[in-house]
Amino acid sequence: MSTKPVVETIPRLEAIYRPAELPEHAGNPLIEALPPFRTAVDVIKAFGRYPHISAGERQLPKETRMQCVCRLDEYVEPLPKHFGLVEQIGLLIRAGYTSRNPLDPGHSKKMKEFYRRAMAGEILTISPTRRSTAPSMALFGVSGVGKSTAIERALAFYPQVLHHKEHGFFQICWLKIDCPLDGSLKQFLMAFLDKVDELLGSNWRRTFGRAKTVDELIGYVARVAAAHHLGLLVMDEVQNLLLASGVGQEKMLNFFVTLSNDVKIPYVTIGTPRGLALLNGVFREARRVSDMGGDIWDAFGEGGEWKHFVNGMWGYQWTKKPVVSQVNP
Q: For position 2, what pLDDT does the model report?
C-alpha cells in the first residue's frame, strides 16, 4: 500500500542535509536533515516568548488596553527547569533515529559477512547488537504549571514534517497528541491517524479506522508511524487516557511495548501526579516510562524562580500609570 500523501495540506519543508557529527549518524537522512543539536545555553534565549508592548499603548482607550492583556497568553519566560528539557527532546529524537536508517539496505548482508569472518576464526558477534527499546521521558506536575507549553517550545526547535524528495518519503519528526478528556485508547489512536492525515493529506483514518479490535488498531498506528519515520510521540494529559473506562492495563502495555520495542519510536508522557501513579500501575518499574529522564513539576514556591518569573512579566502593564514591582530579585 502506498504511503505517499494524496493531497498536500501544509507547505513542504524540503529536507536539507548536513554531514553528521557522529559515525553512528553518518548517512542517515533522518538525522542529517535535522537542525544541529544545541545545548540549553545555546537556545535558552530563543526559548522565551515575549509579546509586543509599547509605552504608547498605555494611552489607548480602556477597552483596547483590555485586549492587549490577552497577549500574555503567549508569554513564556525561560526558567532553570526548562534547560534540561530542550536537550532531552533533541536527544530523544536522535536516539530513536539512530537504528532506523531508511537507506540501510538491510542488516542481512552484514550478518552474512560477520558469520563468514567468524567461521574463518575471528571472534566477533554475528547478530547486530541494538538497544532493545526506544528511550522515553515523562513529565508530570500540577495543572497550569507550564508542562505542555515547555514541551511545545522545545519541540518548536525542530520541523514537524520534512519532505525527502531525493529519497521519496516524508518524515514526521514529532507528533503531540492530547488525550481526549473522556477518551478511550481507541479514540486516542484515531486522533493519531487524524493528525497524520492533517499533516500529510493522507487517508489513514479512512483506511484503518474500521479496525475491529484495539489491538488491531495499535498495529495499524505502529505501521503508519514507521512508514512516515515518526521521530517522537508526545502524549499529553495522559491521565485522561488512563482514567477512561474500558482501557485495561493489558491494552495500554501493548500500545507502549509496540511503540517502544517493535517500531523503536521514543515517546514522552505528560500528565498530572495522578497520571504518574496510574502509569506506574501499568508498568511495574517507573524506568519503563522515563528511562531517559523524568521530572515532577510542582507549583511555584517563593524562591528565586518565582521572583524571576514575576519580575520578567511585570513590565507588561497596560495601566495608565505603571506600578513598580515589589518583588526583589
A: 44
The pTM for the full model equals 0.83
| Residue 285 CB partners (closer than 8 Å, separation 6+) | none
Q: Does position 5 have pLDDT exceeding 50, yes or no?
A: no
3-state SS of the chain: helix, strand, coil percent to 5? 45, 10, 45
- Contact between 230 and 195 under an 8 Å Cβ cutoff? The reply is no
Q: Any idea what the Cα angle at residue 17 is, between residues 157 and 155, rounded to 5°? A: 15
| The pairing of beta strand 267-271 with beta strand 233-236 | parallel
What tens digit of pLDDT does each residue of 220-266 get? 998 899 999 999 999 998 888 766 655 556 677 778 778 887 788 99
Helices 249-257 and 214-227, interaxial angle, to 10°?
20
Closest by CA position to 81, among listed 121, 15, 122, 141:
141
* Cα torsion through 262, 265, 270, 271, rounded to 10: -10
Give the number of other CB atoms < 10 A from CB of residue 19: 8
- Cell 481526549 belongs to 180
Helix (H) or strand (E) holding 137: strand 136-141
Q: How do strand 169-172 and strand 161-164 relate by DSSP bridges?
A: antiparallel
Q: Give the confidence band of 6 by pLDDT, cuts at 50, 70, 90.
A: very low
For the stretch 292-304, pLDDT in tens is 667 888 877 777 8
Determine the distance from the C-alpha atom of residue 16 to the mean position of all C-alpha atoms in its chain, rounded to a whole number.
Answer: 21
Q: What is the DSSP string of 230-296?
A: ---EEEESHHHHHHSTT--HHHHHHHHHIIIIIS---EEEEE-HHHHHHHHHHSSSTHHHHTT-EEE
Alpha-carbon separation of residue 247 from 17, 82, 175, 186 (angstroms): 42, 32, 22, 9
